[in-house]
Amino acid sequence: MTDSQAAQAAVKILIAGGFGVGKTTMVGAVSEVAPLRTEEYLTRASEGVDDLAGIDRKDTTTVALDFGRITVSPELVVYLFGTPGQERFWFMWNDLVNGALGGVVIADTRRLESSFASIDFFESRGIPFVVAINCFHGRNTRSAQEIRAALDLDPHIPLLVGDVRERTFGRDALLALVDHLMALPDPAPVG
Fold it and tell me: What DSSP designation does 46 have?
């Protein structure tokens, strides 16, 4: 077999977080291909179901997943799977996590409580993750220490603060996850 016939290694990473924290935005910012998005417009039927406090200008939502790809080298490709944020779609997370090496939990300091379920999901399954605080419009009202305490994060879990619209911040969050995975004793895929 020639080098050009060698199979690419694939790595799967989940991008998770609460409703409206920037998961779709991050996947789109770092993907080398146009991301697959399953966004639908919010409707009157979601009134009273979806909490739009702090995200009142949001008019679409992911109903299944977001998908993106990053080719690291001819031998390695990273697949990004963005999870839906609303509780009614969380059942899909169990399927999306199969084979994932780890995850990035995106949190919004205006609504930190919306990231508790994502953190619990990864912790309860022993899946390594990092936390990326999305500072909407460059605003962050809390220090990293305050955020870490509010989220009750273990000291070894990386915490980054930035804007997920910026490709470099998304890249940095993914690299922090890779560094975190490499520091663990046995980073085995889930599933």
Answer: G
